[in-house]
Amino acid sequence: xSRWALDSRLDADTHLVGALSLxxxxxxxxxxxxxxxLVPRIVGATEWIDLDRQTQHRLADEITLASQALRTLCSPSxxxxxxxxxxxxxxxxxxxxxxxxxxxxxxxxxxVGSALPYPADESSTLLARLRAALAL
Length: 136
Fold this sequence. Notes:
This protein is of the alpha+beta class. It has helices at 8-13, 53-74, 120-133, and strands spanning 14-19, 23-28, 35-40, 78-82, 93-98. It has a 5-stranded antiparallel sheet. This is HIT domain-containing protein.
Protein backbone atom coordinates (compact mmCIF):
# COMPACT_ATOMS: atom_id res chain seq x y z
CA UNK A 1 0.00 0.00 0.00
CA SER A 2 1.32 3.44 -0.93
CA ARG A 3 1.94 6.12 1.65
CA TRP A 4 0.71 9.67 1.22
CA ALA A 5 3.42 12.21 0.41
CA LEU A 6 3.25 15.91 -0.35
CA ASP A 7 4.12 16.89 -3.92
CA SER A 8 7.65 18.35 -3.93
CA ARG A 9 6.51 21.53 -5.72
CA LEU A 10 3.92 22.26 -3.03
CA ASP A 11 6.55 21.56 -0.39
CA ALA A 12 9.04 23.94 -2.02
CA ASP A 13 6.55 26.81 -2.48
CA THR A 14 4.82 26.76 0.91
CA HIS A 15 5.24 26.83 4.68
CA LEU A 16 3.47 24.25 6.84
CA VAL A 17 0.77 25.83 8.99
CA GLY A 18 -0.42 22.55 10.48
CA ALA A 19 -2.67 19.53 10.06
CA LEU A 20 -6.44 19.43 10.24
CA SER A 21 -8.27 16.11 10.41
CA LEU A 22 -8.11 15.62 6.62
CA UNK A 23 -5.76 18.22 5.18
CA UNK A 24 -2.35 19.65 5.67
CA UNK A 25 -2.70 23.43 5.65
CA UNK A 26 0.13 25.32 3.99
CA UNK A 27 0.88 29.02 3.45
CA UNK A 28 1.99 29.96 -0.07
CA UNK A 29 5.32 31.77 0.18
CA UNK A 30 4.14 34.90 -1.63
CA UNK A 31 3.47 37.89 0.58
CA UNK A 32 1.52 39.66 -2.18
CA UNK A 33 -1.45 37.42 -1.45
CA UNK A 34 -2.49 35.77 1.85
CA UNK A 35 -2.89 32.31 0.33
CA UNK A 36 -3.56 28.98 1.99
CA UNK A 37 -3.36 25.60 0.32
CA LEU A 38 -5.22 22.64 1.76
CA VAL A 39 -3.88 19.24 0.74
CA PRO A 40 -6.01 16.22 1.64
CA ARG A 41 -3.84 13.37 2.89
CA ILE A 42 -5.44 10.86 0.49
CA VAL A 43 -3.09 8.67 -1.54
CA GLY A 44 -3.61 9.09 -5.28
CA ALA A 45 -6.33 11.77 -5.08
CA THR A 46 -6.14 14.20 -7.97
CA GLU A 47 -9.77 15.33 -8.26
CA TRP A 48 -12.60 16.23 -5.88
CA ILE A 49 -14.54 13.28 -7.32
CA ASP A 50 -11.80 10.91 -6.16
CA LEU A 51 -13.08 11.47 -2.61
CA ASP A 52 -16.06 9.64 -1.17
CA ARG A 53 -19.04 11.75 -0.12
CA GLN A 54 -18.09 11.88 3.56
CA THR A 55 -14.54 12.97 2.72
CA GLN A 56 -15.85 15.61 0.29
CA HIS A 57 -17.93 17.04 3.13
CA ARG A 58 -14.94 17.00 5.50
CA LEU A 59 -12.90 18.85 2.85
CA ALA A 60 -15.69 21.42 2.45
CA ASP A 61 -15.70 21.96 6.22
CA GLU A 62 -11.93 22.48 6.24
CA ILE A 63 -12.15 24.91 3.29
CA THR A 64 -14.73 26.87 5.29
CA LEU A 65 -12.44 26.90 8.33
CA ALA A 66 -9.49 28.16 6.26
CA SER A 67 -11.67 30.77 4.56
CA GLN A 68 -12.97 32.04 7.90
CA ALA A 69 -9.41 32.27 9.26
CA LEU A 70 -8.28 34.39 6.30
CA ARG A 71 -11.39 36.57 6.52
CA THR A 72 -10.80 37.16 10.24
CA LEU A 73 -7.06 37.82 9.95
CA CYS A 74 -6.95 39.75 6.67
CA SER A 75 -10.40 41.32 6.05
CA PRO A 76 -10.18 40.69 2.29
CA SER A 77 -12.43 42.21 -0.36
CA UNK A 78 -13.06 38.67 -1.70
CA UNK A 79 -12.01 35.10 -1.07
CA UNK A 80 -11.01 32.93 -4.03
CA UNK A 81 -11.35 29.16 -3.59
CA UNK A 82 -10.13 26.89 -6.37
CA UNK A 83 -8.92 23.41 -7.27
CA UNK A 84 -6.96 23.46 -10.50
CA UNK A 85 -4.13 20.97 -10.57
CA UNK A 86 -2.93 21.77 -14.06
CA UNK A 87 0.69 21.84 -12.89
CA UNK A 88 0.52 19.89 -9.60
CA UNK A 89 -1.88 16.98 -10.08
CA UNK A 90 -2.08 16.10 -6.38
CA UNK A 91 -5.48 17.25 -5.09
CA UNK A 92 -5.10 20.59 -3.34
CA UNK A 93 -7.37 23.55 -2.72
CA UNK A 94 -6.30 27.19 -2.94
CA UNK A 95 -7.94 29.63 -0.52
CA UNK A 96 -6.74 33.13 -1.37
CA UNK A 97 -7.57 36.44 0.31
CA UNK A 98 -7.99 39.04 -2.42
CA UNK A 99 -8.04 42.82 -2.25
CA UNK A 100 -9.20 45.43 -4.74
CA UNK A 101 -5.70 46.90 -4.62
CA UNK A 102 -3.71 43.66 -4.95
CA UNK A 103 -1.29 43.11 -7.85
CA UNK A 104 -3.67 40.86 -9.81
CA UNK A 105 -7.11 42.33 -9.08
CA UNK A 106 -9.57 41.48 -10.59
CA UNK A 107 -7.79 38.73 -12.51
CA UNK A 108 -6.64 35.39 -11.04
CA UNK A 109 -3.35 35.46 -9.11
CA UNK A 110 -1.65 32.87 -11.33
CA UNK A 111 0.98 34.20 -13.71
CA VAL A 112 0.96 37.75 -12.34
CA GLY A 113 4.50 38.91 -11.61
CA SER A 114 6.88 36.91 -9.48
CA ALA A 115 6.27 35.61 -6.00
CA LEU A 116 7.67 37.77 -3.22
CA PRO A 117 8.73 35.42 -0.40
CA TYR A 118 7.81 36.36 3.15
CA PRO A 119 10.64 37.75 5.27
CA ALA A 120 11.34 35.19 8.04
CA ASP A 121 9.92 37.34 10.85
CA GLU A 122 6.75 38.11 8.89
CA SER A 123 6.12 34.46 7.97
CA SER A 124 6.68 33.37 11.58
CA THR A 125 4.15 35.91 12.83
CA LEU A 126 1.57 35.03 10.18
CA LEU A 127 2.03 31.29 10.73
CA ALA A 128 1.43 31.76 14.48
CA ARG A 129 -1.70 33.83 13.82
CA LEU A 130 -3.01 31.26 11.33
CA ARG A 131 -2.37 28.39 13.76
CA ALA A 132 -4.31 30.24 16.44
CA ALA A 133 -7.17 31.05 14.06
CA LEU A 134 -7.34 27.42 12.92
CA ALA A 135 -6.91 26.09 16.49
CA LEU A 136 -3.82 24.10 15.47
